Amino acid sequence: SDILSRNGKKLCNIQRVTTLILFTGKVFIVGLVASASFATSSTQVNNSSLHIQQIYQIVPILICILGSFAITSSLFSLYAMAVDTIYVCILEDLDKHDGSSREPYCMSSDMLNILHLETLLR
């Protein structure tokens, strides 16, 4: 928690960006499910042996929307937790290691590229 308190501004920025990206993804997925369920629910079934008349068309659409929102929210909260965990690991690595040959960073080279640390180490 000491690492998080020292990097509070960075943590706040990471949280905001993560929340924005995941919320946009959530809205996109729920919108796709809503449009697909509306398109499926509004088509007429013209089969002589199967005559189904749907009185309340909005009920199945709402069930699909609420179900997709619940599933998307639970899965995206898992992604948010993974982003937080990776960020804490990065902070811990930056705190304990200096990137020298005696104490190299433990993170991958891809993560070093993202953080622009690989060019600083050369």
Query: What is the arithmetic mean of pLDDT?
Result: 83
Secondary structure tally, helices: 5
Overall shape: it is elongated
Estimated structural class: mainly alpha
Order of helices and strands: HHHHH
Largest sheet: none
Number of strands: 0
Q: How much strand content do the residues show? A: under 5%
Through-space gap between termini: 31 Å
**Residues in helices, as a percent range:** over 70%
List segments where confidence is low: pLDDT < 50 over at least 5 consecutive residues: none
Radius of gyration over alpha carbons?
24 Å
Defining traits:
single chain; 122 residues; mainly alpha
Question: Could you characterize the architecture of this molecule?
Answer:
The chain has five helices and no strands. With 122 residues, it is mainly α. It is elongated and about 75 Å long.
Question: In short, what is this structure?
Answer:
The protein is mostly helical and 122 residues long. The protein has helices spanning 2-6, 8-42, 58-96, 109-114, 118-121.
Give the secondary structure arrangement, pairings included.
Layout: H1 2-6, H2 8-42, H3 58-96, H4 109-114, H5 118-121
Helix pairs in contact: 2-3
